[in-house]
Specification:
The complex is a heterodimer of chains A (572) and B (162). Chain A has 572 residues and is α/β, with parallel strands linked by helices. Chain A is built from 24 helices and 22 strands. In chain A, helix 2 packs parallel to helix 8. With 162 residues, chain B is an alpha+beta fold. Chain B folds into 2 domains: 76 residues, ACT domain (Alpha-Beta Plaits), CATH 3.30.70; 74 residues, Alpha-Beta Plaits (2-Layer Sandwich), CATH 3.30.70. Helices cover 31% and strands 43% of the residues of chain B. The longest helix of chain B is centred in the last third of the chain and has 15 residues. Classes of the chains: A alpha/beta (572), B alpha+beta (162).
């Protein structure tokens, strides 16, 4: 018998790729370099099984894998080299970590005998990424390679998801060992709680029925646990009003009569008033971020709180919680629905008693709806409304960060989960475009837009070459006000209009820029041109940049000053 | 209310675990008053004893954040009543004719030992509670302490009585 075939000997590089295939990976975002050349050489043998997307900057690879993961629910995979390859991914890893996105990042490292030697392209990648990953590894022995990859995918995709990095020295990728992919993982210090404690769920059910003014405050956890259906069922069963964080948008249909918009710093008047007047708030997969709560002592000041979250450390971190429920949102909501299912008589009477509460919130909604004034120049909100109408709310929308992000959250009426890809926690400019590339690769048949500012788009514009190379018809809508608009807005409101370095005095001609890359460039300067430009972009099966020259002075409203109570809204 | 807490943290004995734990404390603005780490009987595990301070809410966050670390197996708070808590100190002290007898007397009262003797200097070893060590230092200070080194706190839960 052939000894080698029995023992299934492989190089480290082959073990890595075979392990990825075992994990169901078919797409990798990467950029080659010295320390990963062995892996890249092996990749050529797997062209039919693994689609490697060559980005133009490693940061782009990390954001693209992130966008791919957010849009598909699968783990995004990144492959980069040591030193600068690894450090260039840091912003992307930190972005994914803050927003709980499952990713596995494979970084090359200098050979084990050179580690610590200040070798060429050496960086302490595990040290640098420790605080911005869910977990990370340095593989020091090829024996541990397959097991480490198994653990990394398990940790990345379970519990509260997050990025896991594996640093692999070059000599490990060329040495040979038996490939035996483990079936299970054994991690003594890691076992997420999925099922909520039944006592807590009974308490929660009782309190939901007892409350006079209940409110659901939903976050990204609804989307990562695929719990949109359960959320909708719960809200409709009891006519519970719903407000969402930025990360939760799409988790509940925006056009639903029980939905009152985003809450927080740029939340709707109705949502922020509802939070402040509710007597019972159920936080579902949300984490009481400072941009949501404003002055935290005043947040939900008339309410008791329940909090459903898979991460115990999110519960009680910023706000005192009366009913904590640790568990997966989907599982907890299902159990809750089961408990409530036997109480139909009680439910119809409480629904009747709470009609006044819904009327109250609706009155706020009509009193101060989201709006803006049209003029001779293009209003940013108008562009986003038209993108919404023309795409029928079915597009995947990624955003950059700042005003364009907030207007997108306010004026694109998200219907479905995993259709808004936005850097909520870290607030990373330059995220949206590569994320859109990742989303387009995950969903080749869908319309994907990146709604950008003229500042943000320039942070990863090099990825236009990637989009052109892979023929990805991503549509970039630049809300171009020649300013870092959100910075301008804060300077206007809080710094006596001292516009310190927020004006982009020089911008490229974005139409020509698109053309230089081999993409399509379109421009709208007048409100009448907005719809034709979007329609034209929709008809082109290539990457498109739409340059919307908009009102420089427009602000995002409502706005709550940082640290103020969220009822202290500046309105339009 | 700000209060000192002692955490007993069982971790996997892997490289980088101490950095993960220490990094978590600094990144989230928690205090480490003292830290002691060593392997347990099982060579795959280490036990860390960390003394920290903060109110109940901070302690809860520290515990929860520690539990998020993949290499952390178990976190337990040890309180004074149910645990034995000890610290060791080595003190190099000026020991001339005028102070020798005082040093010996104090050493005996506190149950310490002389572990090194040189001309004009003794090195004392003493193990006890933090508070006792503080008072020992207060008493010895006027005699001329040349150098001092303390370990972190170690602590072990008592066996439940009855």
């Amino acid at each position: 018998m052939n000894h080698n075939s029995k023992k299934n000997l492989m190089t480290g590089s082959k073990i890595i790729i075979e392990s990825l295939i075992k994990e169901g990976v078919d797409t990798i975002f990467g950029y080659p370099g010295g320390a990963v050349l062995n892996i890249y050489d092996e990749l050529l043998n797997y062209k039919d099984k693994i689609n490697h997307v060559l980005v133009r900057h490693e940061q782009g690879a990390a954001h693209a894998a992130d966008g791919y993961a957010r849009a598909s629910g699968k783990v995004g995979v990144v492959l980069v080299t040591s030193g600068p390859g690894a450090t260039n991914t840091i912003t992307g890893i930190a972005t994914a970590n803050m927003d709980s996105v499952p990713m596995v990042i494979l970084t090359g490292q200098v050979p084990t005998n050179l580690i610590g030697n200040d070798a060429f392209q050496e960086a302490d990648t595990v040290g640098i990424t420790r605080p911005c990953t869910k977990h990370n590894y340095l593989v020091k022995d090829i024996k541990d390679l397959a097991k480490t990859i198994k653990e990394a995918f398990y940790i990345a995709s379970t519990g509260r998801p997050g990025p896991v990095l594996i640093d692999i020295p070059k000599d490990i990728t060329s040495s040979v060992y038996e490939f035996d992919y483990p079936e299970n993982v054994e991690l003594r210090g890691y076992s997420p709680t999925y099922f909520g404690h039944h006592v807590q769920i009974f308490k929660l059910a009782a309190e939901i029925l007892k409350a006079k003014k209940p409110l659901l405050y939903t976050g990204g956890g609804v989307i990562s646990s695929n719990a949109s259906n359960e959320l909708r069922e719960l809200a409709e069963l009891l006519d519970l009003p719903v407000t969402s964080t930025l990360m939760g948008l799409g988790g509940f249909p925006s056009e639903h009569p029980l939905f009152f918009g985003m809450l927080g710093m740029h939340g709707s008047y109705a949502a922020n008033m509802a939070i402040s007047n509710a007597d019972f708030i159920v936080a579902i997969g949300a984490r009481f971020d400072d941009r949501v709560t404003g002055k935290v002592e005043e947040f939900g000041k008339n309410a008791k709180f329940a909090h459903i979250d898979i991460d115990p450390s999110s519960i009680g971190k910023n706000v005192k919680i009366e009913i904590p429920v640790v568990g997966d949102v989907k599982s907890v909501l299902s159990s809750l629905l089961e408990v409530l299912s036997g109480k139909s008589e009680e439910i119809s009477s409480v629904k009747y008693e709470r009609l006044g509460w819904l009327e109250e919130i609706n009155a706020w909604k009509y009193e101060h709806p989201l709006n803006y004034k049209m003029g001779d120049v293009i209003k940013p909100q108008y562009v986003i409304e038209k993108i919404y109408e023309i795409t029928n709310g079915d597009a995947i929308i990624s955003t950059e960060v700042g005003q364009s992000q907030m207007w997108t959250a306010q004026f694109y009426r998200f219907k479905n989960p995993r259709t808004l890809l936005t850097s909520g926690g870290l607030g990373t400019m330059g995220f949206g475009f590569p994320a859109a590339i990742g989303a387009q690769i995950a969903h080749p048949g869908k319309t994907v837009f990146d709604i950008a500012g003229d500042g943000s788009i320039q942070m990863n514009i090099q990825e236009l070459a990637t989009a052109v190379q892979y023929n990805l018809p991503v549509k970039i809508a630049i809300i171009n006000n020649n300013f870092l608009g959100m910075i301008r807005q804060w300077q206007e409101l809080f710094y006596h209009k001292r516009y310190s370095f927020s004006e982009m005095n020089v911008n490229p001609d974005f139409v020509k820029l698109a053309e230089a890359y081999g993409a399509v460039g379109l421009r709208a300067k007048h409100p009448d041109e907005v719809v034709p430009v979007i329609e034209k972009a929709m008809s082109v099966k290539r990457p498109v940049i739409m340059d919307f020259v908009v009102d420089k002075e427009e602000g995002v409203y409502p706005m709550v000053a940082p640290g103020a109570p969220i009822t202290g809204m500046l309105l339009v | 209310m700000e209060k000192t807490h002692i955490l007993s943290i069982l971790v996997e004995n892997e490289s980088g675990v101490l950095t993960r734990v220490a990094g978590l404390f600094s990144a989230r603005g928690f205090n480490i008053d003292s830290i002691c780490v060593a392997k347990t009987l099982d060579k795959n595990e280490s036990k860390m004893i960390i003394a920290t301070s903060g109110d109940a809410q901070i302690l809860e966050q520290i515990t929860k954040q520690l539990n998020r670390l993949v290499n952390v197996i178990k976190v337990q708070e040890l309180n004074d009543e149910d645990s034995v808590v000890r610290q060791t100190v080595l003190i190099k002290i000026n020991a001339d004719e005028t102070t020798k007898s005082d040093i010996f007397r104090i050493k005996d009262i506190f149950g310490g030992r002389v572990i090194d003797v040189a001309r004009n200097y003794y090195t004392l070893e003493f193990t006890g509670s933090e508070r006792k060590i503080e008072s020992l230092i207060d008493i010895l200070r006027p005699l001329g302490i040349k150098d001092i080194v303390k370990t972190g706190i170690v602590a072990l839960q008592r066996v439940k009585k009855g």
